[in-house]
Each structure stands twice: as structure tokens, then as C-alpha cells.
């Protein structure tokens, strides 16, 4: 379980759209790790597909993850 959560966290960090050359903060990563695993697990390791999946599922995301996606152009 710990490995899958850590993997999801790291892959979610890579998957979120970059805003002005900066990657997601630790807080942003933490905000979306559960949603990424729940709604977009099949896209882990595929940043473009993960980005699209998070945007497509924006209405289902937690408030904190939705704010991250929106702040990064989604």
C-alpha cells in the first residue's frame, strides 16, 4: 500500500500540467494523489493522459485537487 501511494504521488507530480516551468509543490501533489489513483490509475506514468484524465474528471475531484487542476490551466 505504501509503495502504491508513493508511486501515485510521484507520478501525479509528473502528470500535473506545468505552470511557468515550475512543477507542482508538495502540497499540490498531496492534494491530488488520491484522486489520481481513484479516477486515473490507468494513466499513471503517462503525464499527458493523466492531465487529460484529471481535467475530464474535474467535477468528481476533491475540492483541493480541483483547485490545483484549475490553477494549472485545467
TrEMBL record:
Signal peptide: 1-20
Domain of life where this protein originates: Bacteria
Keyword list, A-Z: Signal
Protein name per UniProt: Cysteine rich repeat protein
Organism this protein belongs to: Bradyrhizobium diversitatis
